[in-house]
Specification:
Chain lengths: 338, 338
Amino acid sequence: MPVTLQDVALKAGVSIKTVSRVINNQGEISEATRQHVLVIINELSYRPNMLARSLLSGKSSTIAVIIPQITDPFFPEVIHGVEDVARQHGYNVFLCNTNDDPRQELYYLDVLAGKQVDGIILCGSRLSVEQLTEVGKKHRIAILTSREPRATAVIKIAGEAGLYEITSYLLTLGHQRIAHIGWQIKDEPDRLSGYRNALLEHGLVPDDRWIKLVDHVSIESGYAAAQQLLEQAPEITAITCYNDLMAVGALQACKALKIRVPEDIAIVGFDDISLAALVTPSLTTMHVPRYRLGQMTLELLLRVIAADGALEEHLSVEPHLVIRDSCGASTGIGPGNG
Amino acid sequence: MPVTLQDVALKAGVSIKTVSRVINNQGEISEATRQHVLVIINELSYRPNMLARSLLSGKSSTIAVIIPQITDPFFPEVIHGVEDVARQHGYNVFLCNTNDDPRQELYYLDVLAGKQVDGIILCGSRLSVEQLTEVGKKHRIAILTSREPRATAVIKIAGEAGLYEITSYLLTLGHQRIAHIGWQIKDEPDRLSGYRNALLEHGLVPDDRWIKLVDHVSIESGYAAAQQLLEQAPEITAITCYNDLMAVGALQACKALKIRVPEDIAIVGFDDISLAALVTPSLTTMHVPRYRLGQMTLELLLRVIAADGALEEHLSVEPHLVIRDSCGASTGIGPGNG
DNA sequence: TTGTACGCGTTATCAT
DNA sequence: ATGATAACGCGTACAA
């Protein structure tokens, strides 16, 4: 069914190698035969079989992106950046969605090795730091994460600095009883630390009753956590969240409990997904350049590939504060002056 | 660098074929050598080279999904469905994002043929119906669309019926001067027709001044279109939109113009993306089962592959009405009784 | 039960 | 300037 070099050579009355030369326009060929072969190629609409080419060259011009959940709006934009740069460099990208399951991560890592991908981008991995470090040794890989695996190529989102900044911002507005809805995951005390440190530096002692950790990041889990928080600790005047999805959940919990935002309580998110600007009140949050992050991660992966996997590089990306309505600051409303 | 059958055979002191047999546990082998070979395989952590296997078999266990924009929240859920079913069947999926550019669609179609994918899913194509029909002949493909290409495997979202239903709903609520913000694309009068037909059946003549077509589907374009509409035809009491993104844009335009929704005007969307439930007021819209759609499309593609490309099948998926707050009906507010 | 030879479609080496 | 041949890693057909 598919047209091969053989077919073209036969029809053109030349050898396979001659056709091959035309395809890769290498070596000296008479212009006459070149043109002739080109005609036949078009007639038969021949396409080189990349599988055969890859088998020989050892390079598949294929990379893979492993993500936990494509429906989490954080990832499509990262993928967008990855894909754009990949196309520019002639790579195709396998999309691997793990549904938040670390076993599926390992499964895909295995499968992809067999598929001879040239490299792998691992985003938001649910593996432990030890596993990540191990994986980094076995595969050509670039990791986008908030953790700290060693001896690999990593781009880290500065979650600690981010939560430090946004918590400090709330303190500046006059808030004192600030809660945190975090993500219960091993080896990632990152954002929670930022929250804690900001409080400590202002002479406040973080109260464990004001911290709720959930094991799954979603609007629903944010809703549930906020609900419990608001019932068990009604004295709080602000909630910091692991990310925007949870913050939106918290926003809805407040709506359900008839608690006004920002008048009664301030809520902040993290990531600045487009949803953050669209909810009411719009969400004050830390902006993370996701498209750019995708580009950067692929560029890093290309360096890993070029270095034959022997590349150790740690980059950090700093988010920045985006002030909207959910803290009331932009309209002068807040516990200090409302 | 990578371990091959050869390497395993050598170290195990057997022939290549014996190792091959163990891998595919086919043929009769003595349990002793089987176990021995298995040990070596694990020691060397050998993985079969799928490229070589595919080259021989002519099947790559790889399919591709081509979409216009991964950041459009419609597509990630479709992909989610595709990916889940693909994994169950041992397929890997290439993600191809065309950035709304039909030329990139054709480019990818070309590249993927060379990559020897077993099949292609084409979502939201920007190609003309003629091109689509042509593409359907050349590739093993399943198309998810609102158009009507012929002689291929197609799943169609019933846009006409959808807009007919939602427009009828507005008419039931007492609206008479209903506008439409549509998508300017060749061969797709689909949703616009549904809107028109609903009006006609109720004895109303669609007014061209109440119809705005945009050439790019986004929140921004919906915003701009609604703005113009509200300035040029302030008499309208409701706006139907091509999809939720445009409806959200319209919602924001109203907010900016201090026009209350639903008190002053009703707005409806299409798709029921999760954003629809999160904006204020929440959006009345037509629900489209996107995850299921993804599953269905891959299942269809598997049939196309099984039929060696010679499959002509047309499926239609009907959306259903989801009533929320943007028409005021759920709270009894509307032009008829407000 | 196990091994040998060939072919998948391509590129590289070495002739001619 | 062009062509025969080997090799990439694997599975199939046939032999031993």
